[in-house]
Amino acid sequence: MSDKSENRIEIHFPSGHLGASTDDDALNLIIRALSLKHGQPGEWADKYGTNYEDEIIAIHRYCWCEGDSCPWCASDAPNFLHKPSGFTVRWYKYIGREMNVNMQPPRGLVDLVTDADIVALSEKTEETRSGFAEMLKGPK
Q1: Contact at 8 Å (CB) between 27 and 89?
Q2: What is the largest CA-CA distance in the chain?
C-alpha cells in the first residue's frame, strides 16, 4: 500500500443528505422545488421540506416531537398532500429517504413547478455542495 492510500479517507453519505441530487427522481425534484419555493429564509427546505399549505398542496417537514397529539408523530399524516387527487407522500427525516406514496403521482403534479423553480433548486443545490466542499478542505 502506498503512503497516499494510507492517508486516504472515504466518506459515504446517503442520497439526499445535501438536498437535491442528480440521482433524484422526478417526484423528489418536484417536492424539493415546491418546498424551496414556499420555504422560509434560512430553512433547509430543499432537503427537509417546509410547512406550507394552500388550496392545492400541503407540505409538512418530518417531525421529531414524538407528541401524542401531533398528527405527524401520533398518526400517519403525510408530509406531502396533493389535495385534488388525494396523492400523499411520507418520508423519513428528509425528502427522498424511505419515501412512501399511496398511489401513482397525478399527471398535473409537474405543472405546479415552473422553470424558475427548477433553476432556483439547481442554484441552491450548487451553493450547498460548494459550501460543503469548502468545509471538507479544512482550515486555510
Answers
A1: yes
A2: 61
CB 80 within 8 A of CB 88: yes
Nearest-10 Cα torsion for 80, 106, 26, 56: -40
pLDDT digits (tens, 9 = 90+) for 66-119: 888 888 877 789 999 999 999 999 998 888 888 889 999 998 888 888 778 777
Among 36, 34, 2, smallest CA distance to 110 is for 34
Q: Is the pLDDT of residue 37 over 60?
A: yes
Q: CA 4: distance to chain centroid?
A: 36
31 vs 17: CA distance, rounded Å: 15
In eight-state DSSP terms, residue 108 is: G
- Please state, in angstroms and as integers, the Cα–Cα distance from residue 139 to each residue in 11, 59, 71, 77, 131, following that order: 18, 38, 44, 44, 13
Residues 6+ apart with CB under 8 A from 61: 48, 49, 50, 51, 79
The amino acid sitting at 68 is D
CA 124 – CA 36 distance, rounded (Å): 9
Q: List, in order, residues 6 or more apart from 48 with CB less than 8 Å away.
A: 35, 61, 62, 93, 94, 95
